[in-house]
Amino acid sequence: MTAAMNGHRPAAGHRVVIIGAGFGGLFAARALRRAPVEVTIVDRANHHLFQPLLYQVATGVLSEGDIAPPIREVLRRQHNARVLLGEVVDVDLAAREVAFDTLGTRSHLPYDSLIVAAGAGQSYFGHDEFAAHAPGMKTIDDALELRGRIFGAFEMAELEPDPGRRDPWLTFVVVGAGPTGVELAGQIAELSRRTLKDNYRSFDSAQARVVLLEAADKVLAPSPEPLRRRAHRDLERLGVDVRLHTMVTGIDAGGLDTLQDNHTAGRIQAHTKIWAAGVQASPLGAILAQQSATTLDRAGRVSVAPDCTLPDHPEVFVVGDLMQLDHLPGVAEVAMQSGVHAARTITRRLTGDASERPFRYHDLGTMATIARFRAVAYIGRLRVTGITAWLMWLFVHLAFLTGFKNRVAASANWLVAFLGRGRRQRTITQQQILAHTHAAQGSQEALAADPRQPITSRR
Amino acid sequence: MTAAMNGHRPAAGHRVVIIGAGFGGLFAARALRRAPVEVTIVDRANHHLFQPLLYQVATGVLSEGDIAPPIREVLRRQHNARVLLGEVVDVDLAAREVAFDTLGTRSHLPYDSLIVAAGAGQSYFGHDEFAAHAPGMKTIDDALELRGRIFGAFEMAELEPDPGRRDPWLTFVVVGAGPTGVELAGQIAELSRRTLKDNYRSFDSAQARVVLLEAADKVLAPSPEPLRRRAHRDLERLGVDVRLHTMVTGIDAGGLDTLQDNHTAGRIQAHTKIWAAGVQASPLGAILAQQSATTLDRAGRVSVAPDCTLPDHPEVFVVGDLMQLDHLPGVAEVAMQSGVHAARTITRRLTGDASERPFRYHDLGTMATIARFRAVAYIGRLRVTGITAWLMWLFVHLAFLTGFKNRVAASANWLVAFLGRGRRQRTITQQQILAHTHAAQGSQEALAADPRQPITSRR
């Protein structure tokens, strides 16, 4: 089997190319493990990303390795699968070929079946200039950048003797109260109130302000009402300043401009801003739409037939966050199930069964954790909150990580973070400090003419 | 106590400023915990770095958080100590003041006693142009960069159908056979032979070549002879190509030029090169030498009086890798003991005891681990090798990390790496891929006109 995969012999079987190794692509690849096919999975990263826990990397609980197992390690024993590092830049539906770039060199991959699981990136709703000031929460790079900014802000606060200039370093604004925004705001609040206790000499870290901005009228919008209420209450108990009906109209180095209830303009002075508001599907969606009879929705998602294929290209599947079907939400569970559906359809066709079977999503529920021992979960009609929901959250996420063999060390990190007080992953890199130094020097002329007082003046 | 430290009251006690939170600075700070002083420790990083394990971060065994605890977390309960983030750029011995920069803003710190523990960086022996092609092993940034390059090289090899062009991706050259170079070469060999087994489809990762170049006539030069022999044998058993009497005369993107036995020129084609050869003391040494009656040695280290002070400035201590005293080696143990010596001298002076006590180094031995279950150790006259030495190595390092509360998760990572087959920290960031893409595109014209074959041509 390995010989057939090593690229030196002509293709023996049906070639399945999978674009993206997120939940959709990886579950599709695994569901093809016993199929008589040759699977090639292309991703621009070397790792699968367990995105639901990305906010814990940003806030110092987990290491990047805890949630980002190498794709090829996950598929190590699956001999009909190979993994290639590269960014897919084009799909030629007529020629049945995918083009991808690695270190500036282009390669081409022919396919018999194609599963496009390229996912979605952050959307700034047309304000891409916000990105430099408010990173998103989509990649390991984002999480490490945020980690550096969050812990770096506390470092800067320790250096700042003037309270009026210190406060913006101790103000953290999260834009968007979906699951990522809610969990992130909760974690930053816990970090400041518990983990960082006694770490600073010139201020009390519990003074830090965490503001959660949401344009809609509720947090965790797609969840059932009792859960939303509980999450909202838990956030406020943690001291998070939750502001609904609040739009962000501007973001710069020093803070954010807001508009509340469509008429009250406001300003929050804050050095650390995090964007968890919108998603935009991969640009590959537009490439597919140009060549087929499908359409894109406002978020750039590809409308697919009931079996997740392109209307006029039954050999091309679109799954996960890039797929638009029955207004299904962009959650991991939909991605996994649609990926598996695509894999099963390909397998069935190879046995001569060409019948169309529509994709049916089985909603297994939704959960979010606000802080240690606090979570909300909704499983079918069952509502769970508090420590029970939190233990369920822990169990489900551990079970998932187990699949990727990361259980032992993630457990250890969680043990330290949840039972103890510490967080082990608080590294700021020199590169991050350098980047922010350059940014600060560039904007220094724009800053008030009043330079920071030397430390000697404090004494 | 905290109030006196918060910068809003005049200084109450004797002000000790410590530059650098490596082994020397951190042990000095801790040794002052009961002294009637105000300690300020300034470091350009937010973390102490457990440098002896840096090579394990580079090779995917440990996360950066495992070996880089935040300085302020280590000193959390020491209320007479504060920690400031900044790069010290000047010391004014006459004014007794230290200047440091943070995000482009300068601050000044007056002192009554100063402990300079700024350490040493990589030295390329006048060939700084080597740095871009062969990163050193001194900081977390270095280790993460190397991690990306090592795992990235295997990714590139998987994409390369031409064996002649694949081999340079599978060749790893470590320059310098001191402890870091020896341990790194051993780890890369283990990585390729064990961890990455079955990860690739177009080659066997065990084919990877690891070359260890050393200009001198032995590995682990300062260690006793039986240990050197054992280390050499262990490396060769692991399949490391150890080349002694070999100088590096050039390094570029594609490989290294070497000179063996002073007359045979050679060339090794390798994309991944690591520099573990020379150290150069911090530039603060030169700043001190300009203002006092001390001299610098060839490596830029500051000659100190027997009690670790500057000859004409008894209030200024130089400790650790920046210190030149009795030709002591630049190892963690010397840094710790000299840092503690400086702290005790300051404490004794404050009680009115002005007697000079020279620093006496107690050699507690030396150890290095080549691979899982293989190490060499020398404790006094006792020689230990093999699994016994390895267990000692594990115990000593765990005991050290324990002091920084990182035992649980580091143990878990080690359990996975040593008892199992896996390594959990294999993340390549998009930023790293992007940087190498730009580098590759920049040098593409310089490369052979023969572009890499598209993958389609393999089938």
Measure the end-to-end span of chain A. Answer: 73 Å
Derived from helix and strand composition plus strand pairing, the structural class of chain A reads alpha/beta
Please report the total strand number of chain A as a whole number: 23
Share of β-strand residues of chain A: 15-25%
Quaternary structure type: homodimer
Major sheet attributes of chain A: 6 strands, mixed
| Sheet with the most strands: spatial strand order of chain A | 3-2-1-7-19-18
Mean pLDDT of chain A equals 87
Radius of gyration of chain A: 23 Å
- Spatial shape of chain A: globular
Helix content of chain A: 25-40%
**Sequence stretches where pLDDT stays below 50 over 5 or more residues of chain A:** 1-11, 444-459
The interface involving the most residues is between: A-B, 88 and 88 residues
SSE layout:
Two copies of one chain form a homodimer.
Chain A: H1 2-5, E1 14-19, H2 23-31, E2 37-43, H3 54-58, H4 64-67, H5 71-74, E3 81-85, E4 87-92, E5 97-102, E6 105-110, E7 113-116, E8 120-123, H6 140-159, H7 163-166, E9 171-175, H8 179-195, E10 209-213, H9 225-237, E11 240-243, E12 246-252, E13 255-260, E14 264-269, E15 272-275, E16 278-281, H10 284-291, E17 302-303, E18 309-310, E19 313-318, E20 323-324, H11 332-350, E21 366-371, E22 374-379, E23 382-385, H12 386-403, H13 407-419, H14 430-442
Parallel strand pairs in A: 1-2, 1-7, 2-3, 7-19, 9-10, 9-15, 10-11, 17-20
Antiparallel strand pairs in A: 4-5, 5-6, 8-16, 12-13, 13-14, 18-19, 21-22, 22-23
Helix pairs in contact in A: 2-11, 12-13
